[in-house]
Write a structure and sequence with these properties.
Order of helices and strands of chain B: EEEEEEEEEEEE
Largest sheet of chain A: 7 strands, mixed
Number of strands of chain A: 11
Distance between the termini of chain B: 41 Å
Oligomer: heterodimer
Helix content of chain B: under 10%
Order of helices and strands of chain A: EEEEEEEEEEE
Shape of chain B: globular
Helix content of chain A: under 10%
Number of strands of chain B: 12
Distance between the termini of chain A: 36 Å
Number of helices of chain B: 0
Structural class of chain B: mainly beta
Shape of chain A: globular
Radius of gyration of chain A: 13 Å
Structural class of chain A: mainly beta
Largest interface: A-B, 23 and 20 residues
């Protein structure tokens, strides 16, 4: 089944403790992206990647890192999480002409 | 910069009736894609329908259709014969042809009343 798999689904952590949210797609898509969803703000892009080793900042990159060492994987790294990064996170991938396929989301709470 | 506006935070519709969700956007590009995504309580984002700006014909997917007005920069979603399973948050999104970035609206929560 074609899908984007992200883990974990829920995560509660403490301020300053590094964490990684994994994302993997099995569709051989070139483009991958991370979004955060907050009430009243819709989805905002954090980072995106056009291909292996090619990444760029989205609208809200501060406090986040990404890497794209393999085509299928695009992890999101929070080096020192803060409470304002509490949000619902989505990984997504797409081919050139179609819409994004989204993962099932990660609900992150930073206390 | 491109923007996407969904001016209806919440709407309700009776089961089996028709409802239209509004979306307007602003862009200086002539070629782009527009999308509607559905997010049910499971929070999964599901692509509902896609429209290419160069196509004059409005896209249709079963009970879902769009009214694309390029000059007015309007892209509304019509849901016919509404079903309880249509209850969800609906997001309108824009992508320029040459860009990697999607712009999402803030969403419209649709309630379906039995």
């Amino acid at each position: 089944e074609a899908q984007v798999t992200q883990n974990p689904r829920y995560l509660i952590t403490v301020t300053g403790k590094k964490l990684t949210v994994t994302c993997s797609q099995n569709m051989n898509h070139e483009y991958m992206s991370w979004y955060r969803q907050d009430p009243g703000l819709g989805l905002r892009q954090i980072y995106y990647s056009m291909n292996v080793e090619v990444t760029d900042k989205g609208d809200v990159p501060e406090g986040y890192k990404v890497s794209r060492k393999e085509k299928r994987n695009f992890p999101l790294i929070l080096e020192s999480p803060s409470p304002n990064q509490t949000s619902l996170y989505f990984c997504a991938s797409r081919d050139r002409n179609y819409g994004y396929t989204f993962g099932s989301g990660t609900r992150l709470t930073v206390v | 910069a491109q923007t996407v506006t969904q001016s209806q935070p919440e709407m309700s519709v009776q089961e089996a009736e028709t409802v239209t969700l509004s979306c307007t956007y602003d862009t200086s590009e002539s070629d782009y894609y527009l999308f509607w995504y559905k997010q049910p309580p499971s929070r999964q984002m599901i692509l509902v329908i896609r429209q290419e700006a160069y196509k004059q014909q409005n896209a249709t997917e079963n009970r879902f259709s769009v009214n694309f007005q390029k000059a007015a920069k309007s892209f509304s979603l019509k849901i016919s014969d509404s079903q309880l399973g249509d209850a969800a948050m609906y997001f309108c999104a824009y992508r320029g042809l040459g860009t990697y970035k999607y712009i999402f609206g803030t969403g419209t929560r649709l309630k379906v009343l039995a």
